[in-house]
């Protein structure tokens, strides 16, 4: 009984682990909010809102707008129930300043790719973020349940046997538990299969993200090298070309991750966020027509570039390659 419940708990934990957001999918200021790096000279007070079934709600798409001083007092306030939530980070006291600093910072808030540590002893001494930390409570509860079943079997059985001995097969109570034993054997085989499968899939996903990030970095380096070779110093046209290519590279990189499925909303990177984001995820909003208009206002896209993306007839996931 104990072995069955413990195996199921471990299987469920690894299954859930394979879908958790990996720590190298997000970096500080990237991939979404780095596009809003304009240099405003007046205070920023308002977040963009998008319609939702006739109602207006604050979205986590942090498109910062310049609010004229005469309109600052009439800014739309959020619902009190939404204050401090990941979907409205700018409304928490002091959060807007922190978010702005995070958006324009070019340093990562966590390792992009976690460093590999080959020391097995070091790995066994870790606790936070491991499978053991996720299944510790369920396993302890399973042990208590199994211990309770064992005590009940010894108490109500007509026979007595030691803890490590095999129960007598002719005991009526033991015979009534044969169905549970058969169920355990089936579940043991299924649990082993699922556990092995999802562990392999989680590793495969890690490898794919690892190689993807490396490939993106390599292509960006190639483009930067070509731009550097073709540019001249003290030449206004060359300087304009370098600035334009830098802007398009950054936006293209942002669009690539915006089109990638993730559990993170792009803002709450300091903690795992498994909420059902739906339309409130920054990625889909950033690739929407409203998001492109916000990028135009932030100076990360020109009006011609935004119109070209919208009129291309391609899905938003292809915007990164168009740029």
UniProtKB/TrEMBL annotation:
Example GO molecular function: chloride channel activity
Domain of life: Eukaryota
Keyword terms: Signal
Record-given protein name: Uncharacterized protein
Signal peptide positions (record): 1-16
């Amino acid at each position: 009984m104990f072995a069955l419940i413990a195996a199921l708990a471990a299987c469920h934990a690894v299954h859930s682990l394979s879908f958790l957001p990996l720590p190298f999918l997000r970096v500080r200021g990237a991939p979404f909010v780095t596009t809003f790096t304009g240099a405003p000279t007046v205070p920023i007070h308002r977040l963009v809102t998008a319609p939702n079934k006739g109602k207006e709600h604050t979205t986590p798409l942090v498109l910062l707008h310049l609010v004229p001083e005469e309109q600052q007092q009439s800014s739309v306030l959020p619902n009190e129930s939404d204050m401090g939530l990941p979907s409205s980070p700018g409304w928490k006291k002091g959060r807007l300043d922190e978010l702005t600093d995070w958006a324009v910072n070019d340093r990562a808030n966590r390792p992009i790719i976690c460093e590999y540590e080959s020391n097995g002893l070091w790995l066994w001494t870790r606790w936070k973020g491991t499978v053991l930390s996720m299944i510790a409570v369920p396993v302890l509860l399973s042990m208590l349940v199994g211990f309770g079943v064992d005590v009940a079997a010894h108490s109500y059985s007509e026979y007595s046997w030691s803890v490590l001995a095999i129960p007598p097969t002719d005991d009526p109570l033991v015979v009534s538990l044969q169905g549970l034993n058969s169920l355990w054997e089936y579940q043991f085989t299924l649990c082993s299969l699922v556990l092995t499968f999802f562990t392999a899939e989680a590793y495969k996903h890690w490898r794919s993200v690892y190689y993807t990030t490396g490939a993106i970095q390599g292509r960006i380096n190639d483009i930067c090298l070509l731009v550097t070779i073709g540019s001249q110093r003290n030449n206004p046209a060359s300087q304009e070309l370098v600035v334009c290519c830098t802007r398009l590279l950054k936006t293209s990189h942002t669009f690539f991750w915006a089109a990638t499925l993730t559990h993170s909303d792009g803002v709450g990177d300091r903690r795992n966020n498994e909420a059902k984001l739906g339309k409130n995820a920054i990625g889909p909003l950033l690739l929407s027509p409203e998001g492109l208009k916000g990028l135009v206002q932030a100076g990360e896209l020109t009006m011609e570039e935004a119109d070209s993306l919208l009129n291309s007839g391609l899905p938003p996931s292809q915007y990164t390659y168009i740029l």
